[in-house]
Amino acid sequence: MIYLDNSATTQIDEHVLEAMLPWLREDYGNASSTHAYGRKARVAVESAREEIASLINAHPAEVIFTSGGTESNNTVLKSCVFESALVDSIVTSATEHHAILYPTEEIQRTGVRSTILGVNQQGHISVDELEQYDSKRTLVSIMHANNETGTVHRLREIRSTVPDAYLHTDAVQSFGKVPFDVAELGVDFATFSAHKIHGPKGVGALFIKKGIDFKAHQQGGGQERNRRAGTEAVALIVGFQTAARIAHASMQHFAEHTRALTTSMRQQLINSIPNIHINTPEVESLPNILNVSFADAEHIDGDAILQIMDMKGIACSNGSACVSGTMQPSHVLSAMGRADAEAKAAVRFSLSKYTTHAEVTTAVTTLAEILDQMR
Ligand SMILES: Cc1ncc(COP(=O)(O)O)c(C=O)c1O
User: Fold this and answer.
1) 236 and 271, same structural domain?
2) Do 77 and 199 share a structural domain?
């Protein structure tokens, strides 16, 4: 089997699994308990918080643990509008993950103003267009890197265009892969998830800049300094910490390894498949994602491509949502100006530190054969 769907999720790193096991077996205390079991768990959670905070240049008090990217995104949007009442308008982009777009739609239905900015063919918003939304009562939410195409947004430029607004970024795909420094980017909130960097599923974090009066969206116990109720998932948090540490220590190697593979793959695809469109920009993109579509898409069945690839032992994806068994055009590619048929038949390859040159070449050859037969 060849696994090229690492933007969906990644294989857990053995070291991560090893680090987690004691917290599932013998060290099962509740981090809020005051006895020895609880105190030990508390030390583990706080050590993870310190390490993850230091990796993003934040203070530990600025990091809360959540169940992942979806929860962090929902929490920021809903708390900023409702519980914390910091803003009365939201500005985001058309290529965000649904964990931003759907809550934005829901919030809009309550009468809160929301704006969805369009993007150009490379997936970038127009920063000039953003300027008019600069206000202390606005939350701007623009992802750091796109999960379908790998486009990396210009957050520094965005920050300087809306200096007064609250700025959130969904950094689920970029964290641990490219440098991410909250102070340098000037963000107020940032979303992270462990399972995209060889950590466990079901855990993530939210950065909340010091000084922001942030109230919990998920209510219950007083955990995470009253900003997120729920017993801390100690084993998952330790797994997240370990995965983040490994990813940061090997970030340069990851970038070089996966960039070399996607660069080679890009060339191989262009050479072997007529009418191919590469939707991942060559610059300002993650090193490990390559998204392709086909100019003659009306003759191509995107679903069938993925099924045949799967039958031949290659796991990849198209990034678009599958609703009741019917493929929907990718909202990301549609926003980038691709026609419906093309946005339905895209293929996303997402690589990891484990991907080899031979695997990439096999994937290209297989895709070329499938398209040849289909056409
Ligand atoms: C950009 C982006 N945001 C949010 C999420 C959701 O993260 P999680 O799976 O941790 O809930 C994903 C996962 O696919 C993602 O790619």
Assistant:
1) no
2) yes
Name the catalytic one among 136, 322, 365, 369.
322
Question: Domain range holding 68?
Answer: 14-249
- Tell me: pLDDT of 136 over 80: yes
Annotation marks residue 80 as catalytic: no
Q: How many angstroms separate the CA atoms of 101 and 143, rounded?
A: 11
Select from 214, 202, 179, 181 the least CA-distant residue to 86.
214
CA angle 220, 62, 12 (to 5 degrees): 80
Ligand 1 pocket test: pick from 147, 197, 218, 330 the residue with the most ligand atoms within 8 Å of its Cβ.
Answer: 147
Q: Is residue 268 a part of any domain in this protein?
A: yes
Rounded distance from Cα 192 to ligand 1 centre (Å):
8
Mean confidence (pLDDT) of the chain? 96
| Distance from C-alpha of 306 to C-alpha of 370, rounded to nearest angstrom | 10
Strand partners, 294: 276
Q: pLDDT tens across 152-206, in order? A: 999 999 999 999 999 999 999 999 999 999 999 999 999 999 999 999 999 999 9
State which amino acid sits at residue 223. Q
Ligand 1: which atom is nearest the Cα of residue 147?
16
Beta bridge partners of 327: 322
Q: Do residues 220 and 295 share a domain?
A: no
What pLDDT, on the 0 to 100 scale, is given for residue 322?
57
Residues with CB under 6 A from ligand 1: 68-70, 73, 97, 99, 143, 147, 170, 172-173, 193, 204
* Among protein residues, the one whose CA lies closest to atom 4 of ligand 1: 69
Has residue 327 got a pLDDT over 90?
no
The pLDDT of residue 9: 96
Residue 297, domain member (yes or no): yes
317 CA to centre of ligand 1 in angstroms: 15
Ligand 1 center–CA 270 separation, angstroms = 30
Domain with residue 27: its CATH number is: 3.40.640.10
Give the pLDDT of residue 310.
Answer: 97
In angstroms, the CA 216 to CA 222 distance is 9
Distance 282 CA to ligand 1 centre (A): 23
